[in-house]
Amino acid sequence: MMAKILIVDDNLLNLELTADILGLAGYKTVTASSGKEGIEKAEQTNPDLILMDLRMPGMSGLEAMLKLQRGVTTCDIPVAVLTASVMKGDKEKLLNSGFYAYLQKPIDASRFPDQVAALLSNKSAAV
Ligand SMILES: [Mg+2]
């Protein structure tokens, strides 16, 4: 059975693009357009992996990830940050703050399903 991926992004084009790419690769996808909705969907659908945008109005991706880590039903779900943030040291900071992995936007459609597969199969590695 293919893994279920929850994608959280306030940019609906990004959200749909990411969901389409993973859906075509055979994954089940669930989408949310805010941190708050992402937490609700994580609780409701128990995904195998969460892909989290960082910059969102209201609750940021970082805040949402930290809430998920404190949630009884969501603390074991790996949360990868998916961001265009490219400042020097950002990747290390994000990984140190608790994100399971770091994925760079814009995503490369031809590589993205493999990157996600690698995250699912190696629960300790960043890609
Ligand atoms: Mg955003």
Shape, principal axes of CA atoms: globular
Q: In the CATH scheme, what's the topology name?
A: Rossmann fold
Text of the CATH class:
Alpha Beta
What amount of the residues lies in strands? 15-25%
Radius of gyration based on Cα positions = 13 Å
Total of DSSP H or I helical runs spanning 4+ residues: 5
**The CATH homologous superfamily:** Response regulator
Please tally the β strands and state the result.
5
| Helix residue percentage | 40-55%
Instruction: Assign the CATH architecture.
Output: 3-Layer(aba) Sandwich
Overall number of structural domains: 1
Ligand identities: magnesium ion
Mean pLDDT: 93
The largest β sheet comes out as: 5 strands, parallel
Structural class: alpha/beta
Major sheet: arrangement of strands: 2-1-3-4-5
- Give the termini separation: 23 Å
Query: Unreliable stretches, pLDDT < 50, 5 or more residues?
Result: none
SSE run:
EHEHEHEHEH
